[in-house]
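Lab notebook, bench 4. Still working through the backlog of constructs that have no structural model yet. Next entry is a single chain of 112 residues. Request: give me the structure tokens for it.
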Amino acid sequence: MKKKDIILLLLIIAAALIVTAVLALTGAFTGGDKVVVTVDGEVYKEFPLNENVEYKIETENGGYNLLVIKDGAAYVTEASCPDKVCVNAGAAQEIKPVVCAPNKVVITIEKD
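Model written out:
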């Protein structure tokens, strides 16, 4: 590597560190503090993310999803849908909701 390449690499690393620090100071990495469950586009129920809860979401079509909130994570452990994508999706995150298309259930993490 040439001297100019090393200087450019160091400038890129410094810029990345500055951006990360600014985002951390502004609270961009803090995540949400509540779990919002919507069914067919309507808010069904809200839960605090810091409490351990197990709740059965029942839909009008007879379907269900078992929501578990534990240790600051929200996920579906059981569902009546045939494909079980929501069960295998892992924990919901602020940028990645858990979706059960057959039951029209969406679980998101939001800030109060």
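Notes after review: DSSP finds two helices and seven strands in the chain. Residues 1-30 form one domain. Flag for follow-up if needed.
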